[in-house]
Amino acid sequence: MFDLGFRAFCRRVWFGLVFGVLLFACFVRASSAQAFESGFLSSDALSDESKAQVVSRILKWYFAPSNPKKTIMIAGDGMRSEWLPRIEGIEFDLKPSSEISDWKDVVFFGDLNEDPRGGFSVVLGFGNPLCESAGDVWRFRLEKGKVRLWITEARVISNCGFVNKAVDEPPDGA
């Protein structure tokens, strides 16, 4: 059997990890809700060429050629259509977030975070960035004019805690 001190240590570590993850999730949710309005695409920290590399490479990682054809809606505030990759059988539908009414199947890029040690991170998410979304954190840095990009093990999950009903639905039982 384990020593009681070791069990208490494990319990403290476990609760510390859970608290840390919850704190991180709250920070990410608050920052994504606030920063989604501006998005990483409006940041002056990167050139348009670097932004294009990041957008194209991340989307290529998620979407393989498809048969039958698929349309992927992207909340593209600040994004340019020439940044989108050409993938056989995939058509990207770039829309401003103000024109999107059903966020269920929408792809969005979160805010850009600069790492004090150098480099950046950005979230690519699916769903509504303010409620019921999930995404991955990508890190990248610029080396000699090229983007070095990798996916991290961090996931961002947002859940608003209730189900929104459409405004034009009749009340239950009507």
Summarize the entry for a quick read.
By secondary structure, this protein is an alpha/beta fold.
Would you give an account of this structure?
By secondary structure, the chain is an alpha/beta fold. Helix content is 27%, strand content 30%. The protein contains two helices and seven strands, in the order ααβββββββ. It has helices at residues 4-35, 48-62, and strands at 70-75, 90-95, 106-109, 113-114, 120-128, 131-143, 146-158. Strands 1, 2, 3, 4, 5, 6 and 7 form a seven-stranded mixed beta sheet that branches. β6 (131-143) and β7 (146-158) form a beta hairpin. It is globular.
Blueprint (SSEs and pairs):
Elements (H helix, E strand, L loop, with lengths): L3 H32 L12 H15 L7 E6 L14 E6 L10 E4 L3 E2 L5 E9 L2 E13 L2 E13 L16
Parallel strand pairs: 1-2, 1-3
Antiparallel strand pairs: 3-5, 4-5, 5-6, 6-7
